[in-house]
Specification:
Number of domains: 2
Number of strands: 0
Structural class: mainly alpha
Shape: extended
Strand content: under 5%
Radius of gyration: 30 Å
């Protein structure tokens, strides 16, 4: 019965939500809003359980003096200071986020916001590191990704038009030099000719970019964002939606039972 009752409740709730979505009339029309209210209540209790589990975990780390226990003490103290200070400001002025609240003036503005900004500034370095690994032009796909990213980033920056000419010009010049150096090492006359032609094309592209790129770079960036990027994003969203539907059906029909463990 420990498994059958939750499975039965899940099945009935899922079927009723699907019916309420397609039949917006009584008695099914109000079920979606009622289920949303129940979800808010249940999620509130799950948050309480999560807080209890978090504090208990860090308290055990402190008692056993595990590695990093000092951070566990900092977390516990910060939690209770925030809770008590928030309740105090709420009782005194009606809400901890009113303009005359000491919680908003001191704790939120001078502690929480700087910590949040620090966390996101550190996150920028991780994003830059991931972008460097993803944009290395080792394959044809990575080269396309690097080129598209360069057009978009430069096209969305106010000074990108001026900088783009120099950046792409330097990149093409380096490519031309590499092709010329590699042409000397080739034995076949045809391969040498191909490398020389590639170097000439790179040099010609430098002049074309100098004349054309500053005027059309914002339009190129908009086209990349509105056509290929949006098409790929919609494909990903369709895949996510189909995966969510499949997982929902598995849960409603009782095939997926990992949530019972």
């Amino acid at each position: 019965m420990r498994r059958e009752v939750p499975l039965f409740i899940t099945f009935i709730s899922g079927v009723l939500l699907v019916i309420a979505l397609f039949i917006p009339h009584k008695p099914f029309g109000n079920l979606e809003q009622r289920f949303n209210d129940w979800y808010i209540i249940v999620s509130g209790f799950t948050m309480i359980l999560g807080i209890d589990s978090l504090l208990l975990h860090h308290w055990n780390r402190f008692k056993r003096k595990r590695e990093g226990w000092i951070y566990s003490i900092a977390l516990i103290l910060a939690f209770f200071i925030t809770l008590i200070w928030g309740f105090y400001s709420g009782i005194k002025v009606g809400s901890p986020f009113k303009p005359n609240s000491s919680f908003l003036k001191y704790f939120y503005t001078f502690v929480f916001v700087p910590l949040q900004a620090t966390m996101f500034s550190l996150l920028a370095f991780f994003i830059a590191s991931a972008a460097y690994r993803a944009f290395r032009a080792r394959t044809f796909d990575a080269t396309l990704l690097l080129t598209a990213a360069a057009f978009v980033m430069l096209g969305r920056v106010p000074e990108g038009n001026r900088a783009s000419v120099y950046l792409f010009g330097i990149a093409l010049l380096i490519a031309a030099v590499i092709l010329l150096l590699e042409a000397k090492e080739r034995v076949s006359t045809f391969e040498k000719l191909i490398h020389y032609l590639g170097a000439i094309v790179a040099i010609v592209l430098i002049y074309i970019l100098y004349r054309v790129l500053p005027s059309y770079l914002p339009q190129i960036a908009d086209w990349i964002m509105n056509i290929p990027q949006l098409a790929a994003k919609r494909g990903i969203f369709i895949g996510i939606a189909l995966g969510g539907i499949a997982m929902s059906l598995r849960i409603i029909l009782g095939i997926e039972r990992t949530y019972l463990k």
